[in-house]
Amino acid sequence: MFGYQEMIIVFLIVLLLFGGSKIPDLAKGIGKGIREFNKAKDGIRDAIEKDVSVDEISKKG
């Protein structure tokens, strides 16, 4: 895993590449992407759970 020294080096490289003004926009984009991924993941999970429950009900009937 990453230690503190590696994380500081990565942060400094990102700061040099993107500049201080672009980092908040970059973080906002990453956060938005993570939220969309989680929403899609939850949607797939709900669809699978719904299909499983429908299959269980049809087998009982």
Task: Supply the key terms.
mainly alpha; 61 residues; 2 helices
Overview of the molecule:
By secondary structure, the chain is mostly helical. The chain has helices spanning 4-18, 23-60. The chain is elongated, with a radius of gyration of 21 Å.
Topology:
Layout lengths: L3 H15 L4 H38 L1
Distance between the amino and carboxyl termini: 51 Å
Helix content: over 70%
Beta-strand residue percentage? under 5%
Order of helices and strands: HH
Structural class: mainly alpha
The biggest beta sheet reads: none
How many helix segments? Answer: 2
pLDDT < 50 stretches = none
- The overall strand count is 0
Produce a short descriptive summary.
By secondary structure, the protein is mainly α. It has 2 helices and no strands.
